[in-house]
């Protein structure tokens, strides 16, 4: 078993019309044994920028703490919030710094950049970025997430339709992966508000 599959995870970010959604499952496991069913994988950097961290849970928490520290330094120096594109470069640089002993994490970054244009991106454990205009996925359920998102994605969805699409894609995908699941955690971010919802899924 790969170290990336040790805790299990499912992450997805999708763009809509001037909005984006980012969602994750809630299971924390040790291989096939479930340890917690309310684990947080999505972290808020600021009101218009979120990061999801799949992979080894301990590395994800360590990496998040480093990112919060670096973002606070940026805020103090620049006196403004960091842009999603700049933040993606920062995450990539932090991961590449440790390429000989990497954090076993696959980040998914989603944010609203200038003009409320949604930005999503994912990268591997050493910071090689993959940009997309529709959706990005990560985690042990990524294969079935790709299929569900390909089937359900439509361009320029409003926030409610986007929430419905992301939720259905997440719930149907984790049913096909025994290392992730136990409900979902969804954020839908528009220029004016952040909606956070918890999904109930199959509890097995």
UniProtKB/TrEMBL annotation:
- What family is it from? Belongs to the peptidase T1B family.
Signal sequence span is none
Q: What is its main location?
A: cytoplasm
Q: How does it assemble?
A: Component of the proteasome complex.
> What keywords are assigned to this protein?
Cytoplasm, Nucleus, Proteasome
Q: What is this protein called?
A: Proteasome subunit beta
Source species, domain of life: Eukaryota
């Amino acid at each position: 078993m790969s170290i990336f599959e040790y805790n299990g995870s499912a992450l997805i970010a999708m763009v809509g019309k001037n909005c984006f959604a980012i969602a994750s499952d809630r299971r924390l496991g040790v291989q096939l044994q479930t340890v917690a069913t309310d684990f947080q994988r999505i972290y808020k950097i600021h009101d218009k920028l979120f990061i999801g961290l799949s992979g080894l849970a301990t590395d994800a928490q360590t990496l998040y703490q480093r990112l919060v520290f670096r973002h606070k330094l940026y805020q103090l120096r620049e006196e403004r919030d960091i842009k999603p594109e700049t933040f993606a470069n920062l995450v990539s640089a932090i991961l590449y710094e440790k390429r000989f002993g990497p954090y076993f994490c696959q980040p998914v970054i989603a944010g609203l950049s200038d003009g409320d244009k949604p930005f999503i991106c994912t990268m591997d454990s050493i910071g090689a970025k993959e940009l997309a205009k529709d959706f990005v996925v990560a985690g042990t359920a990524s294969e079935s997430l790709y299929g569900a998102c390909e089937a359900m994605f439509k361009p320029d969805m409003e926030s409610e339709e986007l929430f419905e699409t992301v939720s259905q894609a997440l719930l149907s995908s984790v049913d096909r992966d025994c290392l992730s699941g136990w409900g979902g955690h969804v954020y839908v971010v528009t220029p004016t508000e952040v909606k956070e919802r918890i999904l109930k899924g199959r509890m097995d």
